[in-house]
Amino acid sequence: MQQDDPTRYLGLRKVVVYRELVVTEGGERPARPATQASVAAVITNPWVGTGASRDLSVEVELIAPVLAKLLTTKLIEALGGVDAVEAFGKAAVVGTAGEIEHGGALIHTPYFGNLMREFLDGESIICFADARAEAGDALVVPLWHKTHAATRSHYQTITTRISDGPRADELVIVAAGSTGPRPHPRIGDRKTDPAVTVKSLESVLS
Question: What digits encode the pLDDT tens for the residues 148-191?
C-alpha cells in the first residue's frame, strides 16, 4: 500500500463483495427485479485484549470513517450508482477473541453511520445486525428503505459469509443495499394499514 492510502490504518486483510439478482420468485418474475449486494471488510480488531474499560474512541475516529467510505464506494459500484440504491443496512461480526462492543464501535457511531447515510443519499436510521462468530459463519443483514423506513415493501435481508473470517482477532464490517423491494410485495404499508389495536381484534384474541 502507498503511505497516503488511508486504508493502511485498518489492518485490512480482504474485501468481499456479494451480489445477487432474484430472477423469479413464486414461479413468476417480479415486476421490479431488485439487485442486492453486500460489501464486507475483514480487518484486524484493534482492541483485542485491551479490557472492558478501554476507551474505544481514538480508534473509532480513525478507522470508522475510512471503513464507511471504502464499503459504500464499493456498494455503490456493485449496485449501479447512488440513485439505484433504495434500501440499506449495516453489520459487524466480531471474532471470538473480541467483544460485541468492538463491532458496535465501528458501526453504531456517527463516524460510520452518518457517513454511510450521506454517501448513499439516505435519511433513515440504518438497520443493523451484529454478532460474535467464528470464521465462515453466516450473518443475515436486515435492510429497509434509505429515505422512508416505514416502507414495508423494502423490509428484506441479505445473507453474507466470509469463508475464512473473522479470525479470532478480526472484525468483519459490512455495508449492504438493494435496488428495490422484495419480490412481489403485497402486505400493504403503514400509510394504508387499518387502525389495529387489541380492542379492535377482541373477537380474534378472545
Answer: 999 999 999 999 999 999 999 999 999 999 999 999 999 988 88
Listed by start position, the domains of the chain span 6-205
The sign of the CA dihedral 83, 72, 110, 96 is: positive
CATH 3.40.350.10 fits 6-205, yes or no: no
Nearest to 48 by CA among 125, 4, 91, 103: 103
Residue 7 phi, psi dihedral angles, 5° rounding:
-70, -5
Residue with cell 463483495: 17
Question: Which cell numbers hold the place of 84?
Answer: 439505484
| Burial per residue of 164-183, b for 16 or more beta-carbon CB atoms within 10 angstroms, e otherwise | ebbbebbbbbbbbbbbbbbb
